[in-house]
């Protein structure tokens, strides 16, 4: 294919990942426990189910626009599964199995209940034909499709009228499939990650009589035992017809007719061509040979997948050449060599009628052609993948298989080292479990809601990413949600009520609920004329619709007419209606109400550190900033405390500098304002506030007719019961953040993500 | 009271109006028909009910912030009643009754049904005591209160600690009441509007034996027979104690004890002090002596009410002086003289122990003091009222009573002239019945919805005027509505779906509904790279969220890469996501759906005139612009066609000028765009479109999960059934205007105001 497109477009694609991980006990033996209950019904769960064994968790990402996102989604699925594990179980991060029971019969087949009886029966059939142990070999499946608009553009540029778009499209996929099958051994040799086998597997499964298969082995030469002779593969390799999709399917059907395999599902090739059941056209290509990478929590790295993707694209750029029987046999031979002896400098390859060649030379030759042929203007992420690939070629010790075998040298250590990897991933995940990987551009609240939905088996779709606009669906039920809390539970006019401070106050007051006393003006002169009303009082002057506090002034008791008039003018710069309100004393609390129930209460405290009598303020800040909840730019539940001019100035007003050492338990504030964005702390008070305030919050939500709201309430004394003069509701927010209640600086996770889903009926 | 406030603040007030009009047949006889059914249940209707007689419609405005608004609301109530009249009935625009039946018994007492039995019984009691004819005398009641913040400010400025705010407030009201009672004869003399009586009233009611009372009369001397000896008043004037509210109530109670009157309701003084039943404090003052003004559709003019208001405020500025018995007797004497002989140069007045004075001299003296005492810096509307007052003083023929008696000179003509006035008001109203008077600053859609609500007896409250934010309530039911179509019927997330073009398209397509084909880009370079996809096609390039068409480009089939790239850049200036869409052919229709039903379909046509072979284009424009539906600045359903540069230029492209005379039936377009704002026509197609498109519109609304929406659909041929290739839905509007469907240039009023209220359950 002549490529007329920019490389940045050529790498556009749609990507999906599937991954299996075995659940193991903390000693590395296969877990016999049932699939975690927290993950819902594995028969209908769209993302998390089981593969062959009850202990073999299967995670499936939906189609994503980038490889990074697909890996991120998989990472999140992995974290969700980890969080759901019981009895100190771990997820086995290696394709080759952990310690398997001596009695194969005890390996539990996945149980899908009455409705999933067929699935169980199929697994029983597989047990008989292949044995249970082999079925436990796990890995990554990588689904790739080319975006229709890209194919349309390629077709357009071809300007051929002999071929229909559908034929053109099929041709692209068939060429990509055939050439990938031709070249995939290259990927196995470089990226394979299963160079070791535990004896509990090898002595039963591996037919070769070499020593390592009985005691297990840690091979310095192999790249991927999973793909090799001991792996999970068709006993006899077979030849398929790649000349058209129709003939491909026919050749597969012939294998079934001749009982080589029993169904298409038993085609364990490195790549499957997948079909869209709605129109019979090719939907995507499934790359099946990728091993689990125990160094990655997600089980696979984006950079490795980009190499796979490039090898596939390289196939599209190669000249058209039939993938005939000879070529297929050569590919099989190369695959097995790459798998079992991919790092062996002595490995020789040949197929019938061809002379023997050094496998490493073959590999180097391919690499040279591959690197020469690739476009030069690839996006940065792909250029990095190429650099990475060059490193693997030049330094074989950098290959995954080498890094694994460098980490341990006995089959026992094989178990221990992998368990450690698993524990390490888990620990890392726990500190940052507020993220949905690959979706970090979304608001934290949306990430949390999506994660909880995915956990429950609720299908999540991004309808408009930049707006945090998602759909949630399960069975017949479908809900549209924007920014986590804009839902169908609230009606539009009631949202507009919350948005409008004037209306909010009128409605609250009519319901007998306290809101700041004040006046509303649509005319600046009139507002000024009424100075007499506010003289000598602490007041707030603000535009009706405030955005980020713009145009708001607070005047103290000793206010002057001049200050008042200036404040009025400033407020009118932001709206044509302004409010003058009494300044309400007390502390401000965010009270989150869902369906007439208070589900979280939060108070924010200005950025601060607590002395220990030893460290300087600067050191205490650094230490506090190590909390994984703190980051920069609203990507985390809390922000790092800065050591900037504002903080230095505020310290100075207290006669302090960053280098002072506060006494033990002395609280040093770095800021006057309590915003989270300037390093403030969020503190959960859900269980610490007198119930009367909660009752008022619920009453206020009812009066406003709203189901999801974050009320801002000033409270004088949280222990004293509410009285008309000791609290005041400042506003009701129609789009309150939920993440601050899930990951506060102090206090419990109030799981508002779950509460929102409950309220939506999922 | 020492006034330290600016005059602009002093005239702040809250105002309400009540008005009675008798229903008459087209010959001027009292109508015996029941209260119009279209006006709902008069027992519970908050705005329109009946007074004494079934034929005596009573209209009550809610409290308004300005006199102008109160008059406007009354005007609208009047129009609503007029529109509801059957059998060619008219509203009698004069305080003194029309032709009454000889047999008084046939005058129908208001029937409030079983639940309103008490009301009917009270009216039977009144018939007995006062006679039915007197009860038919009609007029205006004007309710005035002082805003609390104004009173608070006055109290603040007073800086007295001896008097509580409540006492201070009561003092203000009592002084205003007493002094108004003292001075109100001045208003009667100048503004009285009932100088004529029909014989069917006078011969039965008037006890004086002068000739005019038997044959009826048209008096050149009287100002207000309604307030005079033949009017509706207490037989014996009584003295009340104005020294405090407590004593005032006691003195009224004493009259009841002594059977002078039977209840407070029978205190027919020119002013009543009204109480807030919740706290027993004075709520407002009710001025009861104002006559109907037959020249005004609303029955009273704002300028006259401002004079009344100024006389009341003048009373506040007068020095404190007891309103003792002597003063009250003097006020009674002046009142009667003003009423029966207000324009009589010979009229003399005196009370016991005082020497006789010329009434006109007394009036001139009062006027001089009044004008001198009033603040100089009154707002313009009040200054105009003063100028008007000066005119009435200097030219007695300008007084209302004089203008009435100048219009006819016999009792028969009295009937005919008033019927003519009534017909004139009605005709004027019919052409502009899209307005809610006094609320013309609101959007037309909101005005229409409010008017229909008021008609149905649904209580309407403006929660936030600048946002067109209203509440509608009836009984326990309450709804919040913004801009007429933002209601509780639609949920927030579904509104956000409509607002988002990307989401809308995805959802419509998923439901199998046609929307323009296209692509979405978040990256300008990528959009540009995809030029190949749109080359040679007519396309629209637009930002995801378009506002007023900003950033939209339309490229024709011969588009160039350069134009395309420029259009992409322009679109990205307005949003971070853009859409490139096929250009859809056909005509655009706005299809309004409420609760899964199409309730209106509209098509807009560019500004045009149709030739008659005689007039120039300029003349045809002028004639078309005379339509009361056309105005300027979105205050009317259609805009006037301009004769500006744009129109001249567009004519020039057709080889025409404004001075050309088009042939008969030739359509001349003045604009290319079809916007209503540039003089376009709105044409109702509700009954003219193939039903398949309506079905699709309903399906689209269902797919989007929305209850109120205005869909924009492109249709190739409105007679042909819908096919996948002959229509396309451009967008769904979540805040569609309703007025264009109610008052189109061509076609029926589709009463969407009523349909929205139906949908809301009112």
UniProtKB/TrEMBL annotation, chains A, B:
InterPro entries xrefs: ATP-grasp, Gln_synth/guanido_kin_cat_dom, Glu_cys_ligase, Glut_biosynth, Glut_cys_ligase, GshAB_ATP-grasp, PRibGlycinamid_synth_ATP-grasp
Pfam families: ATP-grasp_6 (PF18419), GARS_A (PF01071), Glu_cys_ligase (PF04262)
Record-linked SUPFAM superfamilies: Glutamine synthetase/guanido kinase, Glutathione synthetase ATP-binding domain-like
Pathway terms, separated by semicolons: Sulfur metabolism; glutathione biosynthesis; glutathione from L-cysteine and L-glutamate: step 1/2
Molecular-function GO terms, alphabetical: ligase activity
Class of this enzyme: ligase
Necessary cofactors: Mn(2+); Mg(2+)
Keywords (A to Z) from UniProt: ATP-binding, Glutathione biosynthesis, Ligase, Magnesium, Manganese, Metal-binding, Multifunctional enzyme, Nucleotide-binding
Residue stretches making up the ATP-grasp domain: 505-761
SMART domains xrefs: GARS_A
Reactions performed catalytically: L-cysteine + L-glutamate + ATP = gamma-L-glutamyl-L-cysteine + ADP + phosphate + H(+)
EC number: 6.3.2.2
PANTHER family: GLUTAMATE--CYSTEINE LIGASE
HAMAP family: Glut_biosynth
Annotated family: Belongs to the glutamate--cysteine ligase type 1 family. Type 1 subfamily.
Protein name as annotated: Glutamate--cysteine ligase
Protein's organism: Algivirga pacifica
